[in-house]
Amino acid sequence: MKALRLLILLLLIAGAAAALWLPSRERVVGSYVTSLQGRTKGQRINAERAAKALDGVVIAPGHVFSFNKTVGSWTPDRGYVLAPVSYDGELIVDWGGGVCQTSTTLYNAALVAGLEVVERHRHTWAPSYIPPGRDAAVAQYTTDLRLRNPFPTPVRLKADIREGSIGFEIIGSQAGPLATVECEPSATVEPVAVVKYDGRLAPGQRRLITHGRPGMRVDVFRTYLRGKRAGERELLSHDMYPAMNQVVAVGIK
Description:
The protein is α+β, with helices and mostly antiparallel strands and 253 residues long. It has one domain (24-251).
C-alpha cells in the first residue's frame, strides 16, 4: 500500500515537472478587423500585401516592433501598385496607397492586446474605414508605427485577410482581451463649400471634385481589463482633424 502511494506521488511530481517544460497555450490577446468595402482595387492589393508581410512576425519581450522596417519598401518590384493615398492633406496616386489601412488595423489590435505605443501618427483627415482617433498613418522613411511588447513572453502577429476585410490577431500567452478603447469627440467643424472656375467645362456646368468631410477633435482612451494595470484608464491621443472642404468645379459663363 505504501509502495502504491509512493508510486502515485512520484508520478504526480513527474507530471508537474513535465508540465513546466511544456509551452504555454496560445491565446488571442487582442484582435481587430476593418472593412475593405469602398476601397479601390489598388488599395486592396497594397493593404493585403502589407498584411501578408506581417503575418507570423514575432515580437520578443521588451522589443520594439517597427511597421516600416518589417513591411519594407512599397515599391512595384515587391508587388505594390499605384493607388490613392493621402499626402500632406491631399489625395494623390502613389505607390502603396492603402497600406495605412494595414497599419491602422494592426494598431487597433495592439491597443486591445495591451501593447505599448512607442510611435503613432494620425492622418491629416480621418479615414472612412476607422473611427476618428483610431487611425495610424505610415509613410516610408518619415512616418512609422512602433509598438513595444511589455510582456515577459513573446507575442505573434496573425493576419486575417478576407475578400471584404482585413484583420489582425495578437497571439500570446496572456488572457485576452486586455483592454478596451473609447473615443470621446469634443468638437466638430463643418466643411465649407468652395467653388473653382474651370474653363474646360461648359458655361454653368458643375462638377463635384470632393464631397467634403467634417473636422473633429477627439480624445482616445484605453482602459485595462487584466494584469497589473487592471482598472487603469490612460489617454492615448488627443487628435484634431481639420474639415475637408467640399470643392465644386464650375464652367465659366
